[in-house]
Write a structure and sequence with these properties.
By secondary structure, this protein is an alpha+beta fold. The protein is 35% helix and 22% strand. The protein has one domain: GAF domain (Beta-Lactamase, 2-Layer Sandwich). It has a 5-stranded antiparallel β-sheet, sandwiched between helices.
């Protein structure tokens, strides 16, 4: 097999599977942003090599406040990973905690919610979404987000040891 030209060799399993969790995390975040009509969000995940990784993105045409809100969103992610429970701020503009995390700056309008990502009962990361408008039903938002974050990922090879487990 070493005599085969590079393009005829089977792909290296390590290369092929090194991004499974990143793809899964981004897929879940993208689905959550669309389903919840959110503007943007962040994910943190434990990769197959045992390192924490973070990604974030904003949907096109939506307010991009992720950089401004990073301290708040990162705090929600940390809290969610630490407690293994979802958390929401239904109105960022009225939240003293958000103002504190932004060092006294006024937060933009909107809401944020975070939840653990789990597969087969094991937490492997967390996601947070930002909506440009405050929400009245933060419990409903958390329920929808939690449902999306625990969605089956069989199409992304979650059953393999190097996949999401």
């Amino acid at each position: 097999m070493d005599n085969l030209p590079r393009q005829a060799r089977p792909p290296d399993v390590g290369v092929q599977t090194s991004h499974v969790r990143e793809m899964a995390a981004n897929l879940l975040l993208g689905r959550a942003l669309h389903a919840l009509d959110a503007a943007g969000g962040m994910v943190v995940f434990w990769d197959a090599d045992g390192r924490w990784n973070k990604d974030s993105f904003t949907l096109p045409g939506r307010p991009d406040r992720l950089e401004q809100l990073a301290p708040v969103l990162e705090a929600l992610l940390e809290w969610t990973l630490y407690t293994e429970k979802p958390v929401a701020i239904h109105d960022l503009g009225r939240s003293r905690w958000s103002r504190h995390l932004l060092h006294g700056d006024d937060p933009p309008a909107g809401a944020a919610a975070a939840t653990p990502m789990a597969q087969r009962g094991a937490i492997w990361g967390a996601m947070v979404v930002y909506t440009a408008e405050p929400v009245i039903d933060s419990i409903g938002l958390l329920g929808q987000l939690a449902e999306l974050a625990t969605e089956q990922l069989s199409s992304l090879a979650s059953g393999r040891p190097e996949g999401v487990s």
